[in-house]
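User: Good morning. I'm curious how alpha-D-glucopyranose would be positioned relative to this chain. Could you predict the structure with it bound?
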Amino acid sequence: MTKFRALFASAALALPLALAAPPADAQQTTLRVFVGGQQRPDVMRQILDLFQQRNPGMRVDVEVGGATSDQQQQYLNTVLTSRDSVIDVMLIDVIRPAQFAAAGWAEPLDSYLGAERDAVMGRYLPAYREANIVGGRVIALPYFADAQFLYYRTDLLQKYNLQPPRTWDELMSHARTVMQGENNPNLRGFSTAGAPIEGTVCTMLVPMWGAGGQFLNAQGRPNVNSPEIRRSFQLWSDMKAQNVTPPNLAEIPTDRIRVDFQAGNLLFAMQWGYAWNRFQNDADSQVKDKTRVAPLPAFAGNQPATCIGGWQVAVSAFSRNKAQAVQLVRFLSSPEVSKMQAILASHLPVFPEVYSDPDVLRANPWFEFARNSVVTARSRPVSPDYPEISEILRTNMNAFLAGTRTADQAIADMNSRLARVYR
Ligand code: GLC
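Assistant: Good morning! Here's the predicted structure, ligand included:
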């Protein structure tokens, strides 16, 4: 400690730190980005290193937290309700912009984008442009797109002379054939999210959409007592009854599906885009070059459906460095970074042209059809009350999968609780 600081340390502890110890480079701005453990913080770091090289006056630190979308949101709730300026930029799930807009947590970007606003927004895939404009204001910019796909083991299907399934019935029948033939107690036919987490909302909605159902009826009221939602419950209980799914399905969060598939313990999985890169590149992967990706199956006679996902970058309304944070967000939401993410993490692009980039296709041959899956994917309910809606759906699906609630009980509970949200 210098003599100068020692003097102040005893006499004036309350002095702001900046006065007592000026930073090495007084011109430098430090920004802090919050990212979830599942959104490849290591890849974010590489992207930020590039940003720092190009902007020597800026340093960007990464804060990693929360293994699931809802855990990340719990942390952000605490930071943002206390108006804490500790975070400048945050990654938020595609289901959150309406909530962030209503709460005033994200700095609207319109005035920063200025005359460029419409041109900037016009470059994104329409679903991401729309998700990030709430009440006419740009709340965040898209970072990467996402959807759920069917991952399957090519070696096992070939061994039993089976084609990738196009219907849920085919999937179950293939799963039974391979499980019987392999006689491996660790091998299961199929997995999806079943824990009381965000991903389990999609586990409920995807088969409902795939059976032709809608979450809201023509009057904009929730429609969760439909034959189509019952088909979704039936599908999961059939899978359970046939032992196709892992016995602890009700405990499985999103990344556990990846871990199980990567260990060679699953024939099929319903999973998001990021898993491909892990299967192909992780040192412990047992499924490298034995995995393919396809659109999810449908019920016979229906169109397949998938759930739209993805992550956005928002500037905190409480940041003390908003102009610099916007500069960072624009970089993170650029075609250049979209391409880097596609190659380094199989994060799906938010710009249509990046899907056909030859380098991107080399790393992810399945991006050829993935763009169409993203474009035709369905959205979870858009609402400032989404956290509550999600909680109602995921806890009921989870209780059903755990065997503590019947389909009738789960549907009745969803109906009465959703009626209070959609008053
Ligand atoms: C993926 C999706 C996200 C979704 C989450 C659920 O991260 O991109 O939108 O909410 O999975 O587990």
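The chain has 20 helices and eleven strands. Residues 38, 69, 93-94, 146, 198-199, 254, 272, 309-310 surround alpha-D-glucopyranose (CB under 6 Å).
Let me know if you'd like a different ligand tried.
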